[in-house]
Amino acid sequence: AQSVTQPDIHITVSEGASLELRCNYSYGATPYLFWYVQSPGQGLQLLLKYFSGDTLVQGIKGFEAEFKRSQSSFNLRKPSVHWSDAAEYFCAVGTQGGSEKLVFGKGTKLTVNP
Amino acid sequence: NAGVTQTPKFRVLKTGQSMTLLCAQDMNHEYMYWYRQDPGMGLRLIHYSVGEGTTAKGEVPDGYNVSRLKKQNFLLGLESAAPSQTSVYFCASSDPYEQYFGPGTRLTVT
Asked: How far is B110 from chain A (nearest CA, A)?
């Protein structure tokens, strides 16, 4: 069965520091991979997605992610974190092609210290 | 465009009461979804629909029913609410490239 693992439940970084959020997936076919962000009390917003092609994808708000098939990973990165990045981040894999029927990880909560 | 909207935003029910959550989208999407979000559990799919008049079970369908009578609306019903259904409920619709989420409904069952 398809699954997504986000090993870190909670991460704390200082403002201006770099960030990497880990995501590992289990899926037999070519994965469609997504990162969503959820600010407190809000719905989810798409940060970026990988369908095919260049394995380094750029998203909104200065985020990027790299697909590594050999490691079954799709880690999210940002070179310099801003206080407004404090939120919960969810990795997801599309199980029927594209964005249909996503399986989500349990999320990583990011705290940003001033 | 309003995107995906959900009604109501908050609701408190007593055990055994029933209610319906309404989701509406104005993007002409075929696919719509209902998720629940619980602390430390991520989002879990309750039911989904691949088009008007169709529904299908997701990961956690027990205790819920859904209907998709119109393409733009997807209703989630709780016939007899239980405390275990206390959660935040999100509706989403999708095109082939992205799921678009509503703002959520916070439901408390006492």
From this structure: 21
How many other C-beta atoms lie within 10 A of the C-beta of residue A89? 24
Query: Which of B42, B90, B98 has its CB closest to that of A43?
Result: B90
- Please say whether the beta carbons of A63 and A23 come within 8 A: no
Contact call for residues A23 and A39 (beta carbons, < 8 A): no
Token pair, residue B91, equals: 């509706």
Across A9-55, the runs of DSSP E, i.e. the strands, are: 10-14, 19-21, 24-26, 32-38, 44-50
Which residues, including other chains, have CB under 8 Å from residue B99's CB and lie 6 or more apart? A44, A46, A99, A102, B33, B92, B93
Q: At CB < 8 Å, which residues of chain A contact B?
A: 9, 34, 36, 41-46, 49, 51, 90, 97-102, 104-107
Closest CA of chain A from B90, distance in Å: 7
- Sheet-wide strand order for B65-67: B4-7, B19-25, B73-78, B65-67
- B31 vs A96, higher pLDDT: B31
pLDDT at A44 over 80: yes
- The confidence score (pLDDT) of residue B109 equals 97
